[in-house]
Amino acid sequence: MKRLRVILLAVLALTLLVTAGCDPNNEKGTPGGTSAAVSGNSGTSAGSAASSSGTQPASKKMNIKVYYPDEQGMKLIAVKRTIKSDDAGKYAEAMKSLLQGPKDKGQIAVIPKQAKLRSVKVKDDVAYVDFSQDLVKQFTGGSTGEEMLVGSVVNTLTDFPEIKKVQILVEGKKIETLAGHMDLSAPIARMANLLK
Questions:
Q1: What is the DSSP letter of 116?
Q2: Residue 71 dihedral angles phi and psi, to the nearest 5°
Q3: Which distant-in-sequence residues (6+ apart) come within 8 Å of 71 by Cβ?
Q4: pLDDT tens-digit readout, 47-92
C-alpha cells in the first residue's frame, strides 16, 4: 500500500512538472519571423554552455554560423556550429552558442563572460536581443572592440534570412551606445564589411 502511494505521488509530481512547462497562450514562433518571442536562459553566462531543460516541440538539429573577431581584432570569422532547437527557439540558441566563445585558435572572445542573454524576440524582420547589464559594465574594449562585439551579435542573427536588422537591448531597454563609439539606439543591419 505504501509503495502504491509513493508511485501515485511520483506520477502526480511528474504531471505537475509537465503541466507547468506548457505555454498557457499556446504561442508559437512563425517561420517568417513575424512575431516570435523566445526567452534566453537568464542563468546563461557568456562563459558557460547551457543546455535547455524540458522538452521542446519539433526540436531538430540546425547548422548555423556564429561570428568571432580574428586575432588582430579587425575582421569577423564565421564559425559553423550545430544547435538543437525548434524554429521559435533557434535565435536564442544561436546567441547562446555565440556566448560560449571561440573554440579554435585564431579567434578571440569579445563579449564579456559575465554578460547573460536575457531573451531574443523577433518582430517583423528585426531581432531584439536583450543582455544583462554586464554587457556594458564588463566591456573593456575601445572603438574597434565595440564594433567587433556589435558585429558578432548582428551578423550571427542576420545570418537567418528572415532577420534583416538587430536591436541590442540591456535589461530590456534600448541603449545609445555600448562604450561611446557606436550608435545603438536604432536597429543595425548586417555588417558585411567586417566579414573576412
A1: B
A2: -60, -30
A3: 106, 107, 108
A4: 433 444 455 467 899 999 999 999 999 999 999 999 999 988 999 9
What pLDDT digit, counting tens, does each position of 123-172 carry?
A: 999 999 999 999 999 998 899 999 999 999 999 999 999 999 999 999 99
Question: Rounded CA gap, 15 and 10, in Å?
Answer: 9
> How many helices and strands in the chain, by DSSP H and E?
4, 8
Report which residue type is found at 88: A
Query: What H or E segment, with its residue span, contains residue 11?
Result: helix 2-20
pLDDT of residue 59: 86
Place of cell 505555454: 23
Count CB atoms within 10 A of the CB of residue 61. Answer: 8
Alpha-carbon span 132 to 163, nearest angstrom: 22
Residues 86/62, Cβ–Cβ less than 8 Å: no
CA gap 48, 129 in Å, rounded = 18
C-alpha cell at 151: 558585429
DSSP codes, 42-85: TT-BTTS-----S--TT-EEEEEEEEEEBTTSSSEEEEEEEEEE
Residue 174's DSSP bridge partners are: 169
**Contact predicate 170/135, CB 8 Å:** yes
Neighbours of 24 (CB within 10 A): 5
